[in-house]
Amino acid sequence: MLEEDIEVAIKVVVVGNGAVGKSSMIQRYCKGIFTKDYKKTIGVDFLERQIQVNDEDVRLMLWDTAGQEEFDAITKAYYRGAQACVLVFSTTDRESFEAIPSWKEKVEAEVGDIPTVLVQNKIDLLDETVLKNEEAEALAKKLKLRFYRASVKEDLNVNEVFKYLAEKYLQRLKQHTTEEQEQVHTTSNRIGVFNTAGGSHSGQNSNMINGGAVISLRPNKQRTKKSRGLGGRCGKL
Ligand SMILES: Nc1nc2c(ncn2[C@@H]2O[C@H](COP(=O)(O)OP(=O)(O)OP(=O)(O)O)[C@@H](O)[C@H]2O)c(=O)[nH]1
Q1: What Pfam families does this protein's entry cite (predicted)?
Q2: 101-111 pLDDT tens trace
Q3: Domain containing 155: what range?
Q4: What is the Å distance from ligand 1's center to 38 Cα?
Q5: What is the ipTM of this complex?
Q6: Do the domain assignments include residue 51?
Q7: What letter would DSSP give residue 192?
Q8: Which protein residue has the closest C-alpha to ligand 1 atom 26?
Q9: Per the structure, how many domains does the chain have?
């Protein structure tokens, strides 16, 4: 199979309190529509969109999770395997802003550190704002997250959010691939040295303790027929 045939697929989870605009954001991005009606998400939903990033085809699978705690058990299961995350709060809902750190923790508890952005939605309703700009910026800084102000209604900054995540993910994927290649290279050199000295646990997929360094040999990349992902690093699906 040709390298060009391989497509990067990224599972993105969109999380935050109820009614902040998660479903609307996904609908806007994947279908180009906005509806004023509020229909509470029950459990989890998902839509996808293909984009090009640095000449690479990237398929974004956007998982819409329910904002209500009553669905926590279901939604948490769907965080597994997520490779990027959007944390959303609303300009008109202070509680949704204050809940952001705990949403971040919930996602991290399932998938660890993945590319994440913080989004303040509904900036078309700035007249009704319940927080200062500096507060949101301070939170983004504290959590070390890229921060976007967006309006799903006015289609402001929605594309930018997902483009940034895709770029960030690809960047990590490349870095990860290079590191793995270097690791395999270094390891094979070291195995030689180690074996000469004797007493190694040799063989692939086992941890090798060599001069205090633990070296893991893993398959280079997990690839399915048409998709490519970070494999074991972030994904647990
Ligand atoms: N003014 C304004 N309203 C918005 C915007 N985005 C979403 N809404 C409205 O906010 C309400 C809630 O949006 P949803 O997308 O259903 O919210 P959600 O976060 O998915 O809610 P849950 O499913 O309960 O978790 C709907 O009435 C939307 O029309 C926006 O940018 N501006």
Answers
A1: Ras
A2: 999 999 999 99
A3: 8-177
A4: 6
A5: 0.98
A6: yes
A7: H
A8: 38
A9: 1
